[in-house]
Write a structure and sequence with these properties.
351 residues, mainly beta, Sulfite Oxidase, Chain A, domain 2, Immunoglobulin-like, 2 domains, 6-stranded mixed sheet, 5-stranded mixed sheet
Length: 351
């Protein structure tokens, strides 16, 4: 694997951060440990002056303040969020972008207002096709100056658990997580959940914005138009056992009983099966699953490993969901380095 990264990529890595994998122990990720990706700059938002505009192909355009939203009936969703580029740095050939390994993940308790209720109150017109979400963050990407914008097909936008979220884990959003208001689309990769949300526009044709037509698409090569990145592919990660070597992060474990634990998730359907291998994927055994909680949140698993013989081992875990999706052994390369949900491999020295 070509692991060389540029100074520009290091700058991205310095301002964005992932979940330390030992924090997979927490069923709800503490806010400061939740992964973070910021496309441009964090806007300086005055909550007292903030407003959200809902317009376009609606009969009743409206502008709402944060107190207006908080006065409405609230809804809470526990949801696992993953960056579409998680695992990108493990691909070969090298993909130039935010160099994620496996840590671009987190699970939060999000509270806000159901988007469908806002749209229903605005009275959608018959020709409505998509809903466009605009954030306050602005910058350049591939030479295109833009506010960060994404769209959803109408049926997806009207999902019961799609939120206009103003709280995370029982507290107002932090600035880096979209204060004072963000979109939350459970089950979809994180780029969909637009932060610092300031406008919702209902449109009568597919939205041609950069993040929909140029960014976040699976493409085999630069000439391929590709197809859009949408829902989170199944993945399982384990809490690294034992203790780490500082430089390599390789794990050292004492011989004897060594419980393995981790979490698994999928945006397509609930996780139904996690397998664990202690020999690099040659043989597999079933892990014990925790009870299924939120439809949109990861599911805990546990496996009792007896690390009896000193030596070198490679631990792996593999998730399957109710829809029949299974993690692949190896990644599928694409231009953007998206959705690499290949097996996690954890080298371990038993001493």
């Amino acid at each position: 694997m070509d692991a060389a990264i540029s100074q520009n990529e290091l700058a991205l890595a310095a301002r964005n951060h992932g979940l330390p994998l030992e924090a997979l122990r927490y069923p709800i990720t503490p806010v400061g440990l939740h992964y973070l990706l910021i496309h441009y700059d964090i806007p300086d938002v005055d909550a007292d002056a903030f407003s959200l505009r809902i317009d376009g192909r609606v009969a009743k355009p409206v502008t709402l303040s944060l107190p207006d939203l908080r006065e409405r009936s609230d809804h809470e969703v526990t949801s696992t969020m993953e960056c579409a580029g998680n695992g990108r740095a493990l691909l070969a050939p090298h993909v130039v972008s935010q160099p994620w390994l496996l840590e671009a993940i987190g699970t939060g308790r999000w509270r806000g207002v159901r988007l469908k209720e806002i749209l229903e109150d605005a009275e959608l017109l018959d020709d409505a096709v998509e809903v466009v979400f605009t954030g306050l963050d602005r910058g350049l990407e591939k030479g295109v100056e833009q506010n960060y914008q994404r769209s959803l097909a109408l049926d997806d936008a009207l999902g019961d658990d799609v939120l206009l979220a103003y709280e995370m884990n029982g507290a107002p959003l932090l600035p880096q997580h979209g204060f004072p208001l963000r979109l939350l689309v459970p089950g979809w990769y994180g780029m969909t959940s637009v932060k610092w949300l300031t406008r919702i526009e209902v449109v009568a044709e597919p939205f041609p914005g950069y993040q929909m037509t140029a960014g976040y698409r699976f493409r085999r090569d630069e000439d391929d138009e590709g197809h859009p990145v949408t829902r989170i592919q199944p993945r399982s990660l384990m809490v690294p056992p034992g203790i780490p070597d500082f430089d390599t992060r390789a794990r050292i474990v004492d011989a004897g009983p060594c419980p393995l634990q981790g979490r698994a998730w999928s945006g397509w359907a609930p996780i139904t099966h996690v397998e664990v291998s202690t020999d690099g994927g040659d043989t597999w055994a079933d892990a014990e699953l925790e009870p299924l909680g939120s439809r949109w949140a990861w599911r805990g698993w546990r496996y009792e490993w007896n690390a009896g013989e000193p030596g070198e081992y490679v631990l792996c875990c593999r998730a399957s969901d109710e829809a029949g999706n299974v993690q692949p052994d190896e990644p599928i390369w694409n231009v953007g380095g998206y959705s690499n949900n290949a097996l996690q491999r954890v080298p371990v020295t038993v001493q």
